[in-house]
Design a protein that fits this description.
Layout lengths: L1 H19 L4 E2 L2 E2 L4 H7 L5 H9 L12 E4 L7 E5 L3 E2 L2 E2 L2 E7 L2 E10 L3 H12 L3 E3 L9 E5 L3 E7 L3 E8 L2 H10 L7
Antiparallel strand pairs: 1-2, 3-4, 4-7, 5-6, 7-8, 8-12, 9-10, 10-11, 11-12
Length: 188
Amino acid sequence: MTARWAMIGLLALPASALAADLPFGVLDVALGVSYARLEHDLDMRDISAALAKVQSGTAPDLGRRGYGCMRRDDAFADIACVSHQEKIDGVETREIRLHFLEGRLQQFSLTAEVRHYDAVIGYLRARYGEPQAVAPESADSEPSVRWQSEGARITAFRGKDLVFVNFELASYADAVKRKREGTSFQCG
């Protein structure tokens, strides 16, 4: 019996360490995870197989949640995925975009109609606490709100027609810089 509890403890240890490395998420999307993990979590099917079907002119199987994925040649993502079928507490979003760089989900965003602003901010407030107010960049723009941790930040912008929420790892800017410079990430 003691051996069984010890095994459960050993198995739980990596899971809790992994959870600490995933600073922010919404729905089933967690920053920092690989797209292989999100294929399972989001039921996106096999991203590589879906990309091959797109290139061959065949319609890809994007899974039950309708994520479409494509390779990107710019500095901001190696793989980008988009979904138009997500809801947050019953509020339909226009889209959720996922940007993978260096094999990890570095940045994702969601967009919703501005009439859902209070519901979206309420959802985030309930999950992450009170946000910090961010002053508008110009006289004709709205103030935004932000949640920040050591590993990531969330910024929510209210526009004229849309709410835009950006989830970003703290390491994302450095990953973009490395890709622009043509250098690869080195561990250790």
